[in-house]
Structure formats: C-alpha cells, structure tokens
Amino acid sequence: MLARFKPLIDHSEGQLFLSETFKIIVEEVLCKGTDVTQKVCDWKEPEELAWLLDLELRATGEPQHKLLERVKDVAKYSIKTSHPRFFNQLYGGVDYHSLAGRFLTEALNTNLFTYEVAPVFVLMENEVLRGLRQLVGWTEGDGIFCPGGSTSNMFAMNLARYQLFPEVKSRGLWGLPRLTVFTSSESHYSVKKGAAYLGIGTDNVIVVKVDDGGRMIPKDLDEKIMLAKSQGTVPFLVSCTAGTTVQGAFDPLDHIADVCEKHKLWMHVDAAWGGSVLFSKQHRHLMKGVDRANSVGWNPHKMLVAGLQCSALLLQDTTNLLRRCHSASASYLFQQDKFYDVNLDVGDKSVQCSRKVDCLKLWLMWKAVGSAGLEERVDKAFIHVRYLVEEMKKREGFQLLHEPEFVNVCFWFTPPSMRGNEKHADYQERLAKVAPVIKERMMKQGTMMVGYQPLGNKVNFFRVIAFSPLLSKKDMDFFLDEIERLGNDL
Amino acid sequence: MLARFKPLIDHSEGQLFLSETFKIIVEEVLCKGTDVTQKVCDWKEPEELAWLLDLELRATGEPQHKLLERVKDVAKYSIKTSHPRFFNQLYGGVDYHSLAGRFLTEALNTNLFTYEVAPVFVLMENEVLRGLRQLVGWTEGDGIFCPGGSTSNMFAMNLARYQLFPEVKSRGLWGLPRLTVFTSSESHYSVKKGAAYLGIGTDNVIVVKVDDGGRMIPKDLDEKIMLAKSQGTVPFLVSCTAGTTVQGAFDPLDHIADVCEKHKLWMHVDAAWGGSVLFSKQHRHLMKGVDRANSVGWNPHKMLVAGLQCSALLLQDTTNLLRRCHSASASYLFQQDKFYDVNLDVGDKSVQCSRKVDCLKLWLMWKAVGSAGLEERVDKAFIHVRYLVEEMKKREGFQLLHEPEFVNVCFWFTPPSMRGNEKHADYQERLAKVAPVIKERMMKQGTMMVGYQPLGNKVNFFRVIAFSPLLSKKDMDFFLDEIERLGNDL
Ligand SMILES: Cc1ncc(COP(=O)(O)O)c(C=O)c1O
Ligand SMILES: Cc1ncc(COP(=O)(O)O)c(C=O)c1O
C-alpha cells in the first residue's frame, strides 16, 4: 500500500545522472565542439545515423550507463554550432553567461504568464525590454519575447491590423476591405507565412523592389501603396528589414518612415538579424529612423549569441494595444481578484499560453559584459568582415556580390578551370553547381560549414556569416583556404 | 592589431562560471527547491523584488563572483515549481533525465529546420512523434513540435481551413464564406485566441454546452452545427478537449466523431493536458475514439514532466498537408539541390523559422523509464487523486464540485464560521472571497501553492493538481491540513 504513495523519482540518482551529463556537455560540446582541430560535423547518412542512435522508444527503460552513452552519441553526431568554423547560419558561437542563464531557466521550469509563478522573470523581462527599447530610442513603450522572429513579425502584423480595425478580433476579416502588406523582395519569408496564417493571404503581400545592395526602394514603395489603394485595397503595414537574411542589407528606414507617415501606415522593422548594431555607436547609423517605427523585432539569439530562442518584439505603443489585441482574459489564470497588481500578469499579451522564459540568458550576459561588451562584439564582427573581404580581393576566384553593408559576405567561388570563361554560354549554369559540390565535400569531411543559395537571377553563391565571439583571424584564413582546397579541382 | 582578431570569449573562465552555476542549480533549485522543509516561494512585493534583484542593465560588466550572486538570487526568489507542494499549474515536478536532455539541448544550440544543422533531432523528432501517434492509434501520419499547446491548437485550425479552402493561403479569407469553429464552453482559451489571430474572429467560435462534469454535449454540437449552416456559415472545425484545464473533463470523443463524420468536419482533439492517459491501459478509455480525429495536440511538458516547452501536434494526414499549408519554400534555407533527401528539412512544416529542439528531453526520459515507466506515473497520479478525494470526504468544510474524472480536484473550502449557512443570501458572495484570502496567506508564508478560479456560475473554488512524480502521501495530507490552517479563522 505505501509503495503506491512513494515518490517515483530518486533525487540522488537523478542528480548523479545530471552531473555526468554536465561533464559530457563540457567535454564534448564545449571543449571538443569549439576546438578547431575537431570536426564541425560528423556526417552520417540518415539511415546510418538512425541506426547508430537506436531511436526506438520501447516499453522498458534502460540503465544509467546506457543512457549516458546515448547522451554522448547525441552530442557526437550533432552539429557543433559553437565551433568557430560554423559559418552556416545567423546563429552560432557560445556565451557562457548566457548558457548558464539557460541552464538555470530550464531548472526553474516556469512559465512567463503570471507574477505568481514567475515573479523574477516578469520584472526581468520588463527591464530587458526597456533596455532594448532605449537602444531603439524609445523612453516608453511595450513589448514581449516571442518564440522566434517570425512570430514577432506576425504579432506586428496582427497589431497593425487590430489598431486599424479593432472589430477584426471578434468578427474576423469578413466585412473588412481587402488589406495589403508591403515588404521588400528580400525580406524574410515569415512575412508571407504570417500573411497566410493570419488569413490575409500571400497575394496581399505586395513585394517592393530593392536596389543593387538589396535595400527597399522607398519610391517604389510609395508607388505600390498608391496603386494598391487605387485598386481598392487598404494598405495597413510596411514591414521593412534591418539586416536582410541573405545579403545583410538595411532598408532606408528614415525614408520609409516618411512614406509610412504620408500614408498613415504601421511601420514594422524586422531587425531580427541587424538589430544588434544598435549597441554600436559606430554602426547604429545603419538603422537611422528606427525610432519612427511602430514596432521592431529583434533576435538577440542571432548576433548577440544569447542562444536559441531569444526574440523580442518592441513597441512604441503606450495604450496597451498588445494586451487589448491578444487578450482572452481567461478567468482561471488571470483572476482579477488577486492580492497583487494584476497588470504584472503579462501572459495575456501573447497568443501563447505557456511561454518560455527567454529573458534571463540575455539579462545575465548583458550584466556580465555590459552594453560596452556587447558593443565590442558588434564592432569586432565588422572588423572581421572587413578583413575577410580584403583577403578575398587578394585571392583569385573569389567574387563578391557587392561590398557588404553588414556581416554577411556573399560571394561566388570560381574554380581555376572556369576562370576567364565568364562569357561562355554555360558559365552561369556551371557556376550554380560549384557551391553545392563544395558544400557536400565540406560536410562529409566535417571541416567547416557555410551556406549557399540563389537569389533572384543570381545563381548559387556562398553566404558566410562572421560574427561569433569565438572567431579569430586564423579561422577566416582557414575559411578561404578551405574553399579553395575543396573547390580547386572543379 | 592582433587584439582586434583575438576571440572575445575565454573558455576556461566561462566553463568555470558554468560549473559554479551548475552547483548553485543543484543546491538551490534541485535540493532546496524540492525539500518540503523549504519554502515553495519567497514572496516579495514587486518593488522590493526589483530592488533586491538590481535588474538595471548598465554600460560596464560585472565580476564573476557578483554574477554568481545574481544567479543565486534568481534561484532564491523564483517559484520552486518542482517542489512537491507546488499544486498551482498543469506543470510541475522534475525529471532528471528530461532535465539532462534540456541542458544538452541548450548547449547544442541548434534549430530544428534542416537535416544539415540538426541531423540527430530531425530523426529523433520523427521517432518521438511516431511513438506518440502509435498511442493515439495511428500507424501513419505526420506531426510537429510547437511552442506550446496553444500553437498546436492554432495549427490545427489553420490546417482544417486550408484543407477545405486551399486558396485561403494565397487569397486570404476574402471571397470565402464565413467560417465557424465549434468548441465547448470549458475548452482552453487558445481556441478563441487562435480564431482572432487567424482572422476568423471570436464571434465565429460557437460555444457548445457541457454536461455537469464539464464534457461537451454531442447533441448540442450537432444542433449548433445545423443552426450555423442554416445561417449561411460554413462549419469547418470541431475542437474538442481531452482533459479540460479547470475540471479535467474528457469530451466524449467517439460521439463527437460521429457528429464530425456526419457533417464532414475536421475533428481536433486538444489533449494538451489529458493526452498522457494514452500511456495507461487502465485509463486510456477516457479518450476512446481519439483515433478517429484528424489532429491531436498533446503537451508532454504537463503531466509527463518533460519540461517547458514540449508540445506535439499529431496528424492522421499522409498527404503532406502540414507542409503544403505552412511552406514558403525559402530558397536560402530549403535549397532543392542539396546532396541529401530534402524531405528531411522539416522546417517548412511550421510557421516558425527558428524552432527550438523540444524532442530530446522527452526522448531521453522515455528511453530512461520506458513506456511502462510513464504508464506508472499516470496510474499513480490517479491513485493520488483518489486518496485526496477520499480524505476530503472525511473532513468537514471540503466540498467537491463533482467526482474528478482526471487529476484535477476542484473543491470549495468552507471555513467553520460559514458552515451550515449555505442557504444565507450572502453565502456565495462570502464563499467567493475565501479562496483569494487563503491564497494570499499561503503565498506570503510560502508553504504551498494552489490555484483558484470561478467557472460559469460557480464562485471561486480551488483546483488542486496532483500528478508530480515527487508527490507523496504526506504532501497530500499536508495540503489538506494547510488549507484548514490557513482558512479556519475566516
Ligand atoms: C531578417 C530576418 N527576419 C526574421 C527571421 C526569423 O527569425 P526566427 O528564425 O527567429 O523566426 C530571420 C531568420 O533568419 C531573419 O533573418
Ligand atoms: C486543455 C488545454 N489546452 C491547451 C493549453 C495550452 O497549452 P500551452 O500552455 O502549452 O499553450 C492548455 C494549457 O494549460 C490546456 O489546459
């Protein structure tokens, strides 16, 4: 009888397992995983990997030593995104203070919805949002952490729509005129995903032209807005980008703000990637005009290395729009007869119910290095990129798409056999095949990782992202040598 | 010159900080935080807490010892959700294998969007989803982990809409007839939030009546669907609940499936809370008929103690509906000329871009205890609840709303001074004030946490959630004693 009421978890056994896992994490992920003499990835074909991992879930449990092997295997076969030679995505690197914050977040295991269950984090999120808003140039406002920049973009879309037509919340889009959104051809795909998800439809996302550097052209924006109006639709949102995903371009926010003002449109700045330049006195001019926006999305999990996920939506609004737009006022969670100020129950500002605590890791990192330390990281990334670009210019076969504005360096690599043949009819077709082959070779050898993609009429080119605080000059030299080594025989 | 290219992070210093944090986590969160002689919460007024935490973000960084104090403070003032006397939410407790998986996930810091950057997790998520689907009764199908059950419910809504009217993705809701959703009056508020967010509108969520136990009444559903049709709307989704948030009721899925079949509607089962009964041979009958659903949302972060966030949407569909509905086919991420099977790039199944890895913690826990171990946890929770209910019946002043179907026990506590006065005019009004006062006292003393809420015409009652694997008989006895101690003088 008593056994039925005994706790099912043995703390000392559990804590031992956790300690052993911690050791494996330090050794495999943090030491080996950031060691340039070790591989970035240990490529396996899916069938083989599935077999190695023995993924099947069974009726009976396994002994601790077996489970620790599994922990090791997961670490071994996972990509080392903290490795200095992981140039593949807009995230990477590691910051130990942030990581400590993340472990603590996981251990505390609470939800950011009420002050009751998250007193520390309600106040902390508020303070971190305030700090970010200050960098935007706002002394007041609102905001929330979202599960990713895509969600931030979608929240902005929902807010813009609600502000113009509050009845949409109860009645839906029926009865409203057709709404249109404006964004550049190089903006993040989440704008279109958002339009589809929110019932607006991708056809109602009007694509604005970009200049050679990938920046939205305000004149084209203005014309497209007027055209859309003349066709009977109601423009309600311009979603600009500060740091585009592929080219790292900054839309000219100040000019766009003029257009938005003229047409009275909500201006959203998707600064998921570029927002971090706001820490830098030297580079924040790239976002001049951002303080005129209605909302800004910013992902500290990218350039600031805060760790996935960390994405803030910042608002200039002081009218509680976020809560009015998203609230459902559930009486089981957001009781109004609580003994504390129920405005501290921030959960109803989101469309989520459970919401992960994403502020602690950023807060702890910020406390550790200060705004000045974060500024230094941003400035160094620009210095690294400058170095990389100058080195590329010294070497044959590296052709930049254009001078980078930010820390994305986009280039084609032309193998020796193709050099001088730029005018040949099949040159572009052959060039398009170079990057995928180099990528396959680098993945299979595991020496580094970098992404490639086509863009508009430009065939496959590499996009190298150089911002990790673990990066050194050697890694950039290695990068260039390695591209040559892998591609010279093509 | 060289300093400009030196890495900004010192690994040994960083790893030392991480180790020290790990020690604090074990001591403060896992040892003290689960020790019944320690407080569940250390209540502070917001102003005082803000002052204690010194939240402000400054220009300069702080020394390591100071930062470790901050780590300690965050732990100290946070709610101990793993504490056996945290009865406040549908999450709580701790599982060390899951926690180990969460630490590893954080350290590996990758995104679940391509096989390239998440080879282990693409395969693992697939296997975990397969395991969950098997419990639903499906040998085939699809699915995805979402940032919470609310998102799972919204995805289901978007899928149902897209299946009926695929053109909605490009054209939006304009041109479509008014769509209606059906859900019970006790379903989770995310159904309404979703309808607002997706442009459908909360007015188009038709609320179906529940019986005394809080279960949807299929006959009322059928009638409401016919009425909605007769009013010219197009019903497209029934969102039922398996384990309602407050009362823990299970909608009669089999009967609802008949109604859905008759009207050809998408049947979604929100089993965020109740889904875990599927592990139990003894209790899975509560969800009889679930295999007839089109989609099931299930949060292993609740009853299974997998840790926040862990929420799966499961689909019976085998036509790639999820990808067709949500994809944007971004060429920079989901290149089609990769050297491996691009179907492994699962990211386009989501409206998210970055997506946290939520499968590892569940996988590791499942491997550790097996399906049999998870079954045992579910069965024990029912045994605990049975004990609690029987003890309540033995004591004066505890009045159940009804016999619990699941592990939510809803009850009023009537202080001695009010007993026998049930017929008095102000009885309900006075009763409504009892729970908030007891709650305030318990928070300020920090001895335990339990939630209360009103529901329909029922005034404030307590909802105690008893499922944590750390729970013992003593904790339940304590719970009852403590309610009496805190409320007897009211
Ligand atoms: C410019 C831009 N906006 C938005 C996003 C989406 O952010 P998330 O991946 O956090 O959803 C990205 C992702 O790379 C991005 O580059
Ligand atoms: C029945 C039910 N559905 C959905 C949800 C929402 O899940 P989440 O909090 O993960 O968004 C909850 C949350 O408690 C719930 O109880």
Automatic annotation (TrEMBL), chains A, B:
Is Lyase one of the keywords UniProt gives this record? Answer: yes
What does this protein need as cofactor?
A: pyridoxal 5'-phosphate
Tell me the SUPFAM superfamilies matching this sequence: PLP-dependent transferases
Q: Name one GO cellular component term.
A: cytoplasm
Q: Which GO terms describe its molecular function?
A: pyridoxal phosphate binding; sulfinoalanine decarboxylase activity
Q: Which domain of life is it from?
A: Eukaryota
Question: Any idea which residues bear N6-(pyridoxal phosphate)lysine here?
Answer: K302
Q: Which InterPro entries does this chain map to?
A: PyrdxlP-dep_de-COase, PyrdxlP-dep_Trfase, PyrdxlP-dep_Trfase_major
Give a GO biological-process term.
Answer: taurine biosynthetic process
What are the alphabetically sorted keywords of the record? Decarboxylase, Lyase, Pyridoxal phosphate
Q: Which residues form a coiled coil?
A: none
**Pfam families linked:** Pyridoxal_deC
Q: Does the keyword Transmembrane apply?
A: no
Cleavable signal peptide: none
How does it associate, per the subunit comment? Homodimer.
Give the record's family classification: Belongs to the group II decarboxylase family.
Name of the protein in its database record:
Cysteine sulfinic acid decarboxylase
Q: What is the species of this protein?
A: Sparus aurata
